[in-house]
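The instructor's notes for this session suggest beginning with a concrete chain rather than abstract definitions. Hand out the sequence below and ask the class to guess, before any prediction is shown, which regions might be ordered.
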Amino acid sequence: MGNEKINYKTIAEQIFLAGVESVLPSGLITKKMSLEDNSLIIGPQSYSMEAIENIYVIGAGKASAMMGAEVEKILGNRITEGRIVVKYGHSCKLKYIDISEAGHPFPDENGIKATREILKIAELANCNDLVICLLSGGGSSLLVDIPEGCSLKDIIKVSDLLINSGASISEINAVRKHLSGVKGGQLARVAYPAILVNLIISDVTGDPFDVIASGPTVPDPTTFLQALNVLATFGLTRIVPRGILAYLKRGVAGKKPETPKPGDPVFDNTFNILVGSNNVALEAARSKALEFNVNAVIVDYQLQGDTSTVAEYLVETALRFKNDKNEVKPVCLLFGGETTVKMIGKGTGGRNQHLALLSAMLLHNSEGITILCAGTDGNDGPTDAAGAVVDSDTISDANSKKIYAEKYLEEFDSFHFFKKEGGHIITGPTMTNVMDIIVVIVE
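After discussion, reveal the predicted structure:
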């Protein structure tokens, strides 16, 4: 590269994109599923095609349409019927599986209709049938039904309150599962006694099956009482709609059936297989960094916590590597996971853009550090950006243009900061989702 200044922002973006590329459904499904000599191999299981009467394909999530496309390539007209629900803009053309588009992160009427269709298909299946379920991030909002005495408006309200409360995804989903007849193992209950094989792309730290898409095919360890406690912990008890609170209280009193627990026979014929995760993406990102002759270290597979705490942790870690004379540089530090942000202002943004802007503020006087924060699904919050990339010059450059970061942070308006200053990472919908990747390059 001669004496030219290396553009580490561009390199960070290429490293991020390599991570995303590695978890696209096109590569993931074929690694776990194949048809060989009239036997269908899915993960460690093998099924004789002659013994299967019907194959039904159902699913929900941002990646599920593309997962469905790969399943169709393998099974073709052997698929009896199918229905998948995806976020608007995340569908693709399928021949044997019907696709519905619906609301995310807040559910809508289309999600309710699609869920009804999915449940109908699951109910059709008997003991000689195979149900293939394709689950990915976003499934919690897309696979939606309305509990008795509540409205869609109530479900949207409680989702909104939970998402902006600072609650973890596990806590949010404990509530979601108990306001549904499909989440928290209840889809498996409907499909029983058919064989139910679930191919799962994880968007949750640590890949817990009971949390991904609110675990519709997995035993649910949480209870109605825990769901109520989540609302209390985050100060939501008085502000959630009355119908929601009344329904959860009826559940606590034993007037509503609990979600199926570990050991329930409805899971006897259910198999859950992880096909893609953040770990896979981080390993691919690491390989890409090495191609650029940048030393690469995966620092944290399970990054969680409030964005402001995480921003401090990222910058402190970067400075520690920078000041360590024994570290080979440039070095790429990789982090995977999902932070939380408690929205207070009325601006537009998402956790990745907010985290990038907070990091830029902390980097202000530290030369030679680049930080990229982006979501693998291509959407950060309600914006068309996946995230943003910043470096030590971002704030001084913005100040010179009279774009003052403090004001944008106060309003939680990181999207408009980066729209004016530059630094957005724009991928469009990637048709996958394994949480976020953070790329830190220390020169």
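Then share the key points. Residues 307-323 form the longest helix (17 residues). The two ends are 15 Å apart (CA to CA).
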